[in-house]
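Q: I'm building a small set of examples for a reading group on sequence design. Run inverse folding on the following structure and report the sequence directly after it, with nothing in between.
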């Protein structure tokens, strides 16, 4: 059992949280047990392990796993302005930031090789698989839920809901407002009533749609998501860290359909973002169809002021688009400037599956969340470092 990544948490911070007064002997006993676990874990881990993995010179890593060995380095950005951007990234709680410009590596900072939970970035990752499956003729996005025999736990889907197509699900406009696995409280509060909107009429960021898309993909391709992602995307573009087992499944009693969390590193997400920037082409291979990329990043729905929604990608009125996950997982693509920016917030690692949900909840206060406005500020600071010409 590998608990190395638990060392991400500072001893003093953990101790302060664990020994806080919550009242009651059971709570004190529980926290004492958790304290003991972390003390043991932190004592058996070599204290310089992260230092060895993350030694760097300036703003680009020197270790053998660095992206510098796959991409040329951009030399004409302002290091002073990049340093200011990284100070802000550290202040808001980012744990890894990568910047690519015109196929060159500008910045590689933080824990870029650690596979962390991507949260809702998973949706944009699945989008890429759909593009390939559609191209292969394995999936027809006009197929309805009824055609596929999809239903759910009681209260079951209505005949109206069953008219939703795969395309409606990709746009998050299915009109199916059944409870779903891995929903946030915000999603639950905002969920419309059943059968209020017909399929295609209304946009609502809907985990039911996204989860069922994962099931449909596996049903129509006869391939697990993790295996397909590795064979169709990760291997062709040279991802360094992704493994088949880095996609697993999260079921809840409310629905028949699981969420499909991805564990993925920042540097692998940088390659993924670069693939989209290059309109699906990697070297001489068209990995994702170009027309699928255009279709996926078109704003079919208005979500917020300047924010739209395509096919499992968020869009911006500036022409940029991005993947966004809980607590601050971002992959930002700015086509006009040929820029990819990845920012991660520590969200746990596969080795932390050994910890109970209750312990994970106890650890959440140690991790800051990076919201859209903070990410916008970080992007602005990074862009301020661009060469003037």
């Amino acid at each position: 059992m590998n608990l190395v990544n638990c060392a991400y948490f500072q001893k003093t911070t953990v101790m302060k949280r664990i020994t806080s007064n919550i009242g009651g002997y059971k709570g004190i006993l529980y926290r004492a047990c958790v304290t003991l676990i972390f003390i043991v874990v932190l004592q058996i881990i070599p204290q310089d392990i992260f230092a060895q993995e993350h030694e760097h010179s300036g703003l680009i890593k020197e270790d053998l796993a660095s992206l510098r060995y796959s991409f040329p380095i951009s030399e004409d950005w302002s290091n002073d302005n990049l340093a200011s951007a990284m100070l802000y990234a550290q202040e808001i709680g980012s744990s890894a930031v990568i910047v690519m410009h015109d196929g060159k590596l500008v910045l590689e900072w933080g824990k870029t090789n650690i596979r962390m939970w991507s949260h809702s970035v998973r949706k944009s990752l699945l989008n890429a698989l759909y593009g390939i499956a559609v191209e292969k003729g394995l999936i027809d996005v006009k197929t309805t839920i009824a055609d596929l025999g999809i239903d759910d736990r009681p209260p079951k889907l209505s005949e109206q809901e069953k008219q939703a197509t795969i395309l409606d699900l990709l746009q998050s406009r299915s009109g199916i407002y059944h409870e779903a696995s891995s929903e946030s409280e915000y999603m639950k509060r905002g969920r419309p009533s059943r059968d209020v909107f017909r399929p295609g009429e209304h946009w609502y960021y809907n985990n039911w749609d996204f989860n069922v898309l994962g099931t449909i993909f596996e049903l129509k391709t006869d391939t697990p998501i993790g295996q397909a992602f590795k064979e169709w995307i990760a291997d062709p573009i040279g991802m360094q860290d992704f493994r088949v087992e880095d996609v697993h499944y999260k079921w809840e009693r409310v629905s028949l359909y699981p969420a499909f969390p991805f564990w993925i590193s920042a540097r692998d997400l940088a390659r993924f973002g670069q693939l989209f920037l290059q309109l699906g082409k990697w070297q001489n291979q068209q990995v994702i169809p170009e027309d699928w990329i255009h279709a996926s990043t078109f704003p079919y729905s208005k979500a917020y002021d300047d924010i739209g929604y395509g096919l499992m990608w968020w869009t911006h009125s500036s022409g940029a688009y991005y993947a966004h996950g809980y607590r601050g997982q971002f992959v930002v693509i700015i086509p006009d400037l040929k820029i990819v920016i990845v920012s991660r917030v520590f969200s746990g690692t596969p080795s932390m599956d050994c910890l109970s949900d209750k312990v994970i909840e106890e650890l959440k206060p140690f991790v800051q969340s990076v919201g859209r406005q903070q990410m916008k500020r970080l992007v602005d600071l990074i862009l301020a470092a661009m060469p003037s010409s």
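Residues 4-44 form one domain.
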